[in-house]
Amino acid sequence: MRHLISPLDLSVEEIDQLIALASDIEKDRSRYAHVCDGKKLATLFYEPSTRTRLSFEAAMLNLGGSVLGFSSADSSSAAKGESVSDTIRVISSYADICAIRHPKEGAAYVAASKSSIPVINAGDGGHQHPTQTLTDLLTIHSLKGRLSNMTVGLCGDLKFGRTVHSLIHALARYSGIRFVLISPPELKIPDYIRETVLDANGIEYRETTNLDDAMEELDILYMTRVQRERFFNEEDYIRMKDCYILDKEKMKFAKPDMFILHPLPRVNEISVEVDDDPRAAYFKQAEYGVYIRMALIMTLLEVEKPC
Ligand code: NCD
């Protein structure tokens, strides 16, 4: 039985297969409408979510399966003090696969260790978010036709942004990837990622506080929200929340084929005037989240591709 807790749980070949399957699903969704008939997905969300939970649910429904679950800790027995370990043992007998989001780093790993069904990490605190990364990889692949040989700018909250951590882990395995890490000094990527992923693999990167200067060298710009819920005090959040705002003026410096990604939700970091720019790919990216999750559910449930 397979789980997906970190992007490294999948080999590069498996990621390429998932992208190929998701692209096939996008072309002809109706062919996949019954491949998960009779299967159930449980969504255990202890933290707010719009896209991740609903795209998981849409994915399972599109495959002919059904969904059950809860969307906040308050409406589950967590409010009575139940542990994740106990919850997952029970859910294992109610569903065939589960996606879990939890504010604590490592919660999905703990759940997987007690589960008898595949567990998918849908975000564990400020740690990892592997299915957002699969979505991002599918988006980049669709837009650029490749996942190698490009300069990727990651901008905003690189300290607490779990989508950034997972994306760095995943992209570092492709050749010719260069990162420009754009953040205020307080929100730089954690040392463990710099040391164990970037330095250990000899990945080229530079850190800067200046988005304007970085614009012209980027092939992809991945914007992120400052993660208010992970701050220890509100004053720090207020000081940093609008540290980067991507607007039309800044876009003038970008290459004509530089695409903007954002895992969403957006707060202020991308001005709405940018939405009409053909290089704004974040809403398309959210749509790709459904196809890649359909491909992932099929793969973890070992469902055959329809002929
Ligand atoms: C992200 C998350 O939850 O980490 N959202 C998402 O899943 N699309 C990003 C964020 O909340 O800023």
Structural features:
binds N-carbamoyl-L-aspartate, five-stranded parallel sheet, 36% helix, alpha/beta, globular, single chain, 307 residues
Strands, total number? 9
Q: List SSEs in N-to-C order.
A: HEHEHEHEHEHEHEHEHHEH
What is the strand arrangement across the widest sheet?
7-6-5-8-9
Q: Write out the distinct hetero groups bound to the structure.
A: N-carbamoyl-L-aspartate
How far apart the termini lie comes to 24 Å
Architecture overview:
The protein has helices at 12-27, 51-62, 84-91, 107-114, 130-144, 162-171, 191-199, 211-214, 234-240, 248-251, 282-300, and strands spanning 40-45, 66-70, 97-102, 119-124, 150-155, 177-182, 204-208, 220-223, 259-261. It has 307 residues and is α/β, with parallel strands linked by helices. α4 (107-114) links the parallel β3 (97-102) and β4. α1 (12-27) crosses α5, α1 (12-27) packs across α11 (282-300) and α2 crosses α11 (282-300). The longest helix has 19 residues, at 282-300. The chain is globular, with a radius of gyration of 19 Å. It binds N-carbamoyl-L-aspartate.
Brief synopsis:
This protein is of the alpha/beta class and 307 residues long. Helix content is 36%, strand content 15%.
